[in-house]
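Try this one yourself first.
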């Protein structure tokens, strides 16, 4: 039979092609750029938090073309959530690769936390019951905790629910906007960072700070 498209390309090239495609798709919603937009999207959202100097509003796939505020808020909610998850994931990667683990065992069979390998290999090394507990815990957070349960949120992604504050109400509006912008940027960087670590782990080699993959 004739070879399928890309079948004869080297594995490394295929991986790089996949990385490039993923990065383009991941960046589609809010990271700054000079790409031209429709006037309706620009007029509606160019002043939103996240359309930040020096490049401003960015939506090359037109996800916000003719979108209303509800559509924008949904995309912003997804971006914030993925950014927070990615920050935890990246921090977890560099922490365990630095040799810092929870003490004790992960199960009654004596599997210690420090015996679990890093990265993708951890998925197959964690006992099945442990994986099920992780999935159940994440599901509980998603469905009942990490959301605006009380309806008191000041903005998309505000999950304090009248219980957690950490001094937020003592900040002026300018400081609040600054801190929210910092979270957005850190989340965007973390999404690229954890994706880069996952890909480099498959390619092999070492990464500064993280070390050998």
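Now uncover the answer:
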């Amino acid at each position: 039979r004739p070879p399928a498209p890309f079948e004869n390309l080297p594995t490394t090239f295929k991986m790089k092609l996949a990385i490039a495609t993923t990065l383009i798709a991941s960046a589609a919603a809010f990271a700054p750029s000079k790409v031209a937009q429709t006037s309706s999207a620009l007029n509606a959202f160019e002043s939103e938090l996240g359309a930040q100097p020096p490049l401003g509003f960015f939506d090359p796939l037109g996800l916000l073309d003719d979108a209303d505020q509800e559509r924008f808020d949904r995309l912003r909610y997804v971006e914030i959530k993925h950014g927070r998850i990615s920050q935890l994931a990246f921090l977890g990667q560099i922490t365990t690769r630095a040799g810092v683990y929870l003490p004790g065992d992960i199960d009654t069979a004596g599997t210690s936390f420090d015996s679990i390998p890093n990265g993708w290999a951890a998925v197959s090394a964690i006992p099945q019951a442990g994986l099920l507990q992780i999935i159940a815990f994440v599901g509980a957070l998603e469905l009942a905790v990490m959301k605006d349960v009380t309806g008191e949120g000041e903005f998309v992604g505000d999950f304090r629910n009248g219980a957690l504050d950490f001094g937020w109400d003592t900040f002026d509006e300018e400081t609040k906007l600054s801190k929210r912008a910092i979270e957005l940027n850190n989340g965007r960087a973390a999404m690229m960072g954890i994706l880069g670590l996952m890909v480099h782990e498959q390619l092999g080699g070492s990464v500064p700070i993280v070390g050998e993959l």
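Discussion: Residues 28-38 have pLDDT under 50 and may be disordered. The chain is about 50% helix and 0% strand.
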